[in-house]
Amino acid sequence: MTTTAEAEQVCPPDHKHGQTNTCRTNHRCRCDNCRAAHRAYSRQVRREKAYGRYEPSLISARGAHRRIQALARQGWSQKRQGDYLGWAQQRVGQVLASERITKGVHAQIAQMFAALWDKEPQPDTHWDRASVLRTRRDAAARGWPRPLDWDDIDGDDEPAVVESAGNTVDDARVAIAITGATVRLTAAEKRAAVEALHPQGLNDKEIAARIHCSDRTVLRIRAELDLPRNDTLYNRPAAA
Fold this sequence. Notes:
Layout: H1 4-8, H2 22-26, H3 32-50, E1 58-60, H4 62-73, H5 78-85, H6 89-97, E2 100-102, H7 103-116, H8 126-141, H9 171-177, H10 187-197, H11 204-211, H12 215-225
Antiparallel strand pairs: 1-2
């Protein structure tokens, strides 16, 4: 029999043995509680497969990778992201190294991204500030896009259009895009398009349809520009 002390050598300190199959499968824990949980999980999977109701618990880690990387461009190091999630730093690195993760882990990272995508770390010391700058520099050197560089962070097959140095905006491209024509815009050009369309009283979905992006992207841009919502007929400009 494997003792609790021996189990703790292979399991994260915050793991509660026997409550899920994770410890036996991922950490190779062989304590009695985790073995029992593994047997129960295996029986459940067999039953669900027999009745055609089985859905794999692991999903692609691509969306999680992109969120961790985009937050790094904001200065959120793996350690800071781990602190936010209540994880050890190594666990964030393990997610980046994994091709598949559980739905629960994906949900935690998605929640963190939703809370931090438009925020930057607030360093307290010189060393903290140096860490934030180093994280940004390393992420940029790896070519990791920023949060606003993505349209659909889970669904896009290709990386977003990353702005060139100087964040230049092609006004002609923006003018064409806001007519509804399909034009691939940089993040800076999307911001310019939202600024141009917002005064017309268009809501997020209408702007998104006009410039061919997701309404979540428009929402993020509005938050960055501190623009109010245009969600009702009452705040639309009156017809001439």
